[in-house]
Amino acid sequence: MSPGLAYGKTKEEAFQAKENLWQRDIGNERANCTHKKCCDPMSCRLKSKAVCGSGECCGQDCKVKPVNVLCRKSKNECDFEEYCNGNDAYCVPDTFARNGQYCDSGQAFCYSGLCMTSNNQCMNLLGKYVRGASFACYEEFNSRNDRFGNCIRKFCSFENSLCGKLVCTWPFKRLLMKDNMSAAYGQIRDDLCISLYKGGRPLKTTLSTYSDMSERDETFVKDGTICGPDMFCLETQCKETRFLVDFQQCNTSRDCNDHGVCNNFNHCHCDKGYNPPYCESVKGQFGSIDDGHKYYIDEGKSAKQQNRGIHPKQQLQLILYITLPLIMIISAVFIKQSKLSRLCGRERSEGTRSSADPPITPNPERILNVFAVKKH
Q1: Rounded distance, CA 149 to CA 195, Å?
Q2: Contacts of 47 by beta carbon, 8 Å cutoff, 6+ apart
Q3: Is the pTM of this model over 0.90?
Q4: TM segments (predicted)?
Q5: Most CB atoms closer than 10 Å: which of 211, 276, 335, 372?
């Protein structure tokens, strides 16, 4: 079949889409007629020839922008670009790498669309020359159970040391001067480490001055930060990703042909040169079925139908699962029949041999001798 394109609607669908856009412009707070020439700001109704009145994919000509126009840029390596789909005035929902996907050359995990590294957290908090501290620094501070080192209500256990308060290296010879922040310093081996406490909050009766997870702020390690092999922090606990992410819903090797990663909708986001949904080699293609851009599908099939189809690798696995047991059963039956045939053949040959033997005739002389002995 010749390839078709996954965009475009019938007249009825286009009319319904326009009605939906109009209703959204009335009721949606973020719409509020941002394009003044497209709608009446008093009644918040579209003008007669306007298709849309607001939205990232609504042009100044009051028409929906064509497909493949970028409407949301990528923020980092864990976040993906989104495009206008040619039908909706608003950009498609944000797409990003699924939680637990490696980033930063395998040194960190993606979490909620961000590459969660302690280096980035320290730089955002203290400046570009600061980095995440060593494990020794984290253990030293987070075992203290005070406001500069804790896992909320108590000290961090050894295995959770990397998931409590954020500890950074401090490469300067001056003290930190930061509004509403107090700092504690520690010389741990070759590093001068620093941990912060944010003031202006009501103190609790606990030694750490914190009582529940809702009190965490930027001075704590963020959820999703790596804390071990295939492990990341979640609410001050270091946990294995296999218990937190369902890797069976989307598997990069099985479903993405090893040429893409799974996104937050558990669909493949394919590398450049590979076509969604299964990341098969197609020149010029990329991305996912969720990012709004135009991609190739088989003519007569919608993207949803393709997405519900069975991947070729899964088809092969299904065939093997069905055929192998059948082959084993047939082989067992054949072997059993062969054994029975050989057994029946042996019995027939023995019966033939027995019938072919000459009959035993009595020896008259021997009978007479035996009779004579008995008589005496």
Answers
A1: 7
A2: 37, 38, 39, 40, 62
A3: no
A4: 318-335
A5: 276
Question: Do 120 and 224 fall within a single domain?
Answer: yes
Residue entry with tokens 């010879």:
173
In 3-state terms, what secondary structure has residue 6?
Answer: coil
Q: How far is residue 193's CA from residue 183's CA, in Å, rounded to a whole number?
A: 10
The phi, psi pair for 23, rounded to 5°, reads -65, -40
Only one residue has tokens 């409407």, namely 71
48 and 148 belong to one structural domain: no
Find the angle CA(322)-CA(326)-CA(331) to the nearest 5 degrees: 150
Whether residue 344 is contained in a domain is answered as no
Distances 61 to 28, 58, 184 between C-alpha atoms, Å = 21, 8, 58
Asked if the structure places residue 254 within a domain, the reply is no
Going through 14-134 in order, the beta strands assigned E by DSSP cover 39-40, 45-46, 70-72, 82-83, 102-103, 108-111, 114-116
Q: Is 19 helix (H, G, I), strand (E, B) or coil?
A: helix
Contact 136, 190 (CB under 8 A): no
CA 222 vs CA 51, 117, 118, 136, 186: distances in Å: 43, 9, 8, 19, 22
Task: Check if the beta carbon of residue 55 is closer than 8 Å to that of residue 43.
Answer: no
Residue 252 in domain: no
**How confident is the model over 298-318, as pLDDT tens digits?**
544 444 334 434 455 555 566
| Cα dist from 31 to 23, 65, 326, whole Å | 10, 16, 61
Rounded Cα distance, 306 and 11, in Å: 23
Return d(Cα 54, Cα 237) in angstroms, integer.
44
Residue 155 lies in a domain: yes
- Give the CA radius of gyration of the chain: 38
The pLDDT tens digits for 138-166 are 999 999 999 999 999 899 999 999 999 99
CA of 45: how far to CAs of 41, 144, 316, in Å?
7, 61, 55
Edge to edge, the sheet with strand 102-103 lists 102-103, 108-111, 114-116
